[in-house]
Amino acid sequence: MNRTYIEEQRHEAIAWAQRMMAHDFLVLDLETTDLNGTPIQIAIINQDGESVFDSLINPGKFEIHPKAQEITGITSKMVEYQHTFAEVHLELYAYLAGNGPGDPQIIIAYNVAFDRRIFNAAEVYAKLTPIPWTYWQCAMENYAKFYGEWNSYHGSFKWQSLEKACKQQNITVNGKAHEALTDARMTLALVKHMAGK
After folding, report:
1. Whole-angstrom distance between the N-terminal and C-terminal Cα of the chain?
2. pTM for the full model?
C-alpha cells in the first residue's frame, strides 16, 4: 500500500481523536452472553474517566456461553439477582440520549458495530423505545488507521483488539481486560493517546 495514503489515514485518525476530545462524549462498553446475545455488563464513563454507569445485567432467559464466561469471568450466578436490561434502560436513556437532532450525545465504543448491534437488539427484544439522538463513533476503526497495519487480503487496515492496541501504544490501565469498566477506560486512554493528550 502507498505510504502516502497510510500517512494520510493516520493523520485523519489523529484529527478524529482531536475532534472527539474537543467535545463532551461518553465511552460505552458491553460484555455479552455471546457474540449474538444480550448484555451481561454495561459500563459508561465520561471523557474524564469517571464512571457514569457500571453494572452487571441479568440476561433473562439468555444463557451465558461458556466461552463468554471464560473471557469475562461473569457467571450466571453473578447476574442472577441483577437488574435486567429493560429495568436499567430508563437510567441509560438519561445518560445516552442527546438533546435533539442538532445536539446528539457522542458515544464512543471500541467496535461500535458490535456494541451498537447488541444494544439495539436488546431494546427491540424488550420492546423498548430506542434511545434517540445518539452519535456513535468507533475507536477501533480509527485506531486501525492510526496504527496503519495494512491487510492486503481485505484491502483495508487491520483491526486490532483493544488489549493489543493498548500494548502497542504502551498504555496501562488498572483492571482486568474484558471487564466493561476497564475496557471503557482502555478505550478512553487510546483515544487520548491518538489525540496527543
Report:
1. 29
2. 0.95
